[in-house]
Write a structure and sequence with these properties.
This protein has 459 residues and is α/β, with parallel strands linked by helices. The chain folds into two domains: 167 residues, Aspartate Aminotransferase, domain 1 (Alpha-Beta Complex); 252 residues, Aspartate Aminotransferase, domain 2. It has 16 helices and 14 strands. Helix 12 packs parallel to helix 16. It is globular and about 55 Å long. The chain starts with 22 loop residues before the first helix and ends with a strand. The mean pLDDT is 96. The protein binds ligand F0G. The site of ligand F0G has 15 residues, from helix 4 and helix 5.
Length: 459
């Protein structure tokens, strides 16, 4: 008989100590950090759910692969192993390695962006939006309306609004829209997947307008797993096969290998367009390095080659999505509003609803994130009006949602760590009405959320 408990499909081989702190120490750390959790020393954090980016545990076989790393400047065997692993899942002709995802974005939008250009996406992540806007282009988010409703149970809330996309492309055409992006899974929108059917729809619209389709594919394996689980007709498919189908619908991709590819660093840009690849490689050499290593050491390329193979294992993805859902379901059962359905890499607490007494521009997400750290040493990340409220023209508009993301590093924390997180979150939620909002006292831009300082509005 098949047993029901879904276990971690690994055992622990090397451990890192966690440092316990007192509430007094955490208050002092917050004061020194200007209430910005990015400014904390990581050692002052007990459970670090700031991001799932580069924070996962590598496997024994990845550490072994590191030892095979060949540091030849050009044409290293590590590069060819990396290339083979990438093309096994994403058979694009031109693969350009970069040190992380935003380097790929910077290069691509430097070539494709510029004043007057418009880049649609289901939802741009912060660095993607910033890299588009930095060139003078406009970043437009066109996720389906359900994607903005934290309570909606739509199985593919990352889907692109096809009518809105068609209307935008009809109005502006390929002269102004150089590329259409789809982010899988939709990180800023709650880690929600995009269905294959929706991707096919986007592809058809792009074809009609003669515009290339690119994927921001950081969490491709989790997205493919959700397709297998939720989209009719795919339940028996191999995830790697679903990934290849996703790739076949696109003309290119950007990737942060710090997410699903199970690396601590890395990324790439890929395309079938030889002329575009040529222009990107020229920029790559300027800032990242030679095209067979990008900004990476040979050993990083080998770790990623192995990580990519592990990223599509079904036992791993079953455990990964189940353990994230375990946290989300416990919070929801305890009365904490969370974005539904639970995404793959994170649980998103709906701070706008939990702290409805705090107006959006007093940053309810920031208030909740600070309170979780103060109460239990848990570091989450505001994804709301701190991150997205400041417009390129300097005005402030509330973001579509006020969320706190509790991102789960891959293969890193155990179920009892998560049980502790649940206990802390429920205790903070019980006194949510006592929390007050924040104002920003210094906000460098763009991407102010990384370095801004905050003080409570009641001081
Ligand atoms: N695209 C998406 C959807 C992302 O989530 C990220 C990073 C990037 C691009 C940029 O990649 O960090 O390698 O330069 N997201 C991280 C996060 C930082 O916390 O979600 P990068």
């Amino acid at each position: 008989m098949a047993f029901q408990t879904i276990i971690e499909p690994f055992r622990i081989h090397s451990v890192e100590p966690l440092v316990m702190t007192t509430p007094g120490q955490r208050r002092a750390a917050l004061a020194a950090a200007g209430n910005n959790l990015f400014a904390l020393r990581a050692e002052d954090v007990l459970i670090d759910l700031l991001t799932d980016s580069g924070t996962g545990a590598m496997s024994r076989d990845q550490w072994a692969a590191i030892q095979r790393g060949d540091e030849s400047y050009a044409g290293s065997p590590s590069w060819y192993r990396f290339l083979e692993s990438v093309q096994e899942l994403f058979p694009f002709e031109h693969v350009i390695p970069t040190h992380q995802g935003r380097a790929a974005e910077k290069i691509l939008f430097t070539v494709l962006g510029g004043e007057g250009k418009i880049v649609p996406n289901n939802t741009h992540f912060d660095t993607t939006r910033a890299n588009v806007e930095y060139t003078g282009a406009e970043a437009v988010d066109l996720v389906i309306p359900e994607g903005h409703d934290p309570a909606s149970m739509h199985p593919f809330k990352g889907n692109m609004d096809l009518d809105a996309l068609d209307a935008l492309l009809t109005e502006h055409g390929p002269e102004r829209v150089p590329v259409v992006f789809v982010t899988i899974t939709n990180n800023s929108g709650g880690g929600q997947p995009v269905s294959l059917e929706n991707l096919r729809g986007v592809r058809a619209i792009c074809d009609r307008h003669g515009i290339p389709l690119f994927l921001d594919a950081c969490r491709f394996a989790e997205n493919a797993w959700f397709i297998r689980e939720r989209e009719p007709g795919h339940a028996d498919r191999d995830v790697a096969d679903i990934v290849r189908e996703i790739a076949s619908l696109a003309d290119g991709m950007t990737m942060s290998a710090k997410k699903d590819p199970l690396g601590n660093i890395g990324g790439w840009l890929a395309t079938n367009d030889a002329a575009l690849a040529e222009r990107c490689r020229t920029l790559l050499i300027l800032t990242e390095g030679f095209p067979t290593y990008g900004g990476l050491a040979g050993r990083d390329l080998d770790a990623l080659a192995q990580g990519l193979r592990e990223s599509v294992h079904h036992d791993y993805l079953r455990y990964r999505t189940r353990s994230t859902a375990y946290l989300g379901e416990a919070l929801a059962q305890g009365g904490v509003p969370v974005v539904q359905p639970i995404g793959g890499h994170a649980v998103y607490v709906d701070a706008g609803r939990l702290l409805s007494h705090i107006p959006p521009l007093e940053f309810p997400g920031q208030a909740l994130a600070v309170a979780l750290y103060e109460a239990g040493g848990i570091r989450g990340c505001e994804i709301g009006s701190v991150m997205f409220g400041l417009q390129p023209d300097g005005t402030e508009h509330p973001a579509a949602m006020e969320l706190v993301r509790l991102a789960i590093p891959r293969r890193t924390y155990t179920q009892s760590h998560v049980d502790y997180v649940i206990e802390v979150c429920l205790s903070v939620a019980e006194r949510a009405h006592e929390l007050t909002g924040y104002r920003i006292t210094s906000d460098p831009r763009p991407l102010r959320h990384f370095t801004a300082r905050f003080e409570p509005v009641d001081t």
